[in-house]
Amino acid sequence: MTQDTRLVRVSSGEDVICNVVSIEDDYITVTDPIVAVPAGEGQIGFAPWSPLLKESEELSIQMTHVLYISFPNDNIKQQYENLFDRSPLIKPPGGFNEKKIIL
Fold it and tell me: What does the pLDDT look like over 30-58, one tens digit per residue?
């Protein structure tokens, strides 16, 4: 499954990092929504946005509650995608460089 990792700011003020499944006129459908939480000493951790939501369940958010949709910075994006990577492959830091893969 291809990730479309986005940062969604909702009307409650939360920045939700999630995988976007679709964006429609009236709603956005996402999976694996998380929020950043302070972890001390200038660090941040992640917590489920909806802790009771079934894992990988699609969640639709009404667009009236969405202030903006953007892309997270590269570091946050990589951490998020590593957290929800369901691939059995072990990837090197920074991902694969297609031009240098030797089989």
Answer: 999 999 888 888 888 899 999 998 988 99
Q: Which domain holds residue 87?
A: 5-93
pTM over 0.90: no
Helix, strand, coil shares of the chain as percentages rounded to 5? 15, 45, 40
Helices (DSSP H) in 19-90: which residue ranges?
74-83
CA 90 to chain centre: 19
State the total domains in the chain.
Answer: 1
Q: Residue 81 has what DSSP assignment? A: H
User: How many CB atoms are closer than 10 A to CB 85?
Assistant: 12
Q: Which two tokens stand for residue 63?
A: 């667009």
Residue 65 C-alpha from the chain's centroid: 18
> Which contiguous run of DSSP H or E holds residue 17?
strand 15-23
Query: Is 102 inside a domain boundary?
Result: no
